[in-house]
Model the fold of this input.
Amino acid sequence: MNTKTITITVTGAAGQIAYALLPRLAELLVDVETKIVLKLLDIEAAQSKLEAVAMELSDCAFSWLEHVVVTSDLKTAFDGCQLALLVGASPRTQGMERADLLRINGAIFQAHGAAINTYAASDVQVLVVGNPCNTNAYICMNHARDVPAHRFYSMSMLDQNRAYAHLATHFSWDISLLENLCVWGNHSTTMYVDYQRAQYDGQLITDIADTEWLANAYQTLVAERGSVVIQARGSSSAASAANAVLDASIMLLDSNLAYGAFSMGVCSHGEYGAKPGTIVSYPCYYDNKGNLSVVEHIELDPVAMKRISASFEEIADEADLCRSLDLIH
Done:
């Protein structure tokens, strides 16, 4: 049997999200002949903990794991990387403003972008998870100018999964019968769940559900779920975030038209009024050539457009802040 490998780099690999993510990476593989070369990156102070993570992975005796590299060195971590999962970031804590988070994390994503630009494989894809993920992806992309912009993504799948879960719970629906429910904008409280095109068991949910709740309370529930988790457990979501990383990564590695519409933060070309060059969550799909594209010609009512535009504006403001903080030159 000819063994193929894919090199995956995970940053912040000693953290809680990575701890929940790493044992499940086999879910990314589309065939049993492919193995993962796994590169785990974290700061020097976390190397002992990272070594312990590597020990546990070894003790799992995974057949899909070719070998594990533990490092604090950017060249070692990103050399030959084909999928970069940028999880590592200073965590958002209770009461922290997004601008504060951006100041703390900006330098991290500058360095990661430069390393990806220099050392990663020519076909690298980059999924940014560490918050604020849209803007961190924007910073990273702008420090990797030799890598096509369409290879950089921010994770909005956690918002989408939360949207599915709240909807199914509220109406006591079978979650497997929900589809076409996507999230627009920023991974923040300004995000917008586009329920108007979603379907349950083949029916538009606007025809069978309380649209007042969908337009108001539902939006708040999804947008504030991260804060509610922080209040309850004292730290950010970990298991659900790891699950969303896997869901998003599967869609990046397996360009399948059958996925239908899904949420992904991509580099905007100005679709629906977003600032070109920023990283924005849109409803996306794979065309019949396997290209990930933004869904076009969506008719948005004035309320939806107002909320989406506000989220786009927040992303643009964060991009401007990056420049004022000299995070992008």
Remarks:
- The longest strand covers residues 4-11.
- The domain at 4-154 is CATH 3.40.50.720 (Rossmann fold).
- The chain is about 40% helix and 20% strand.
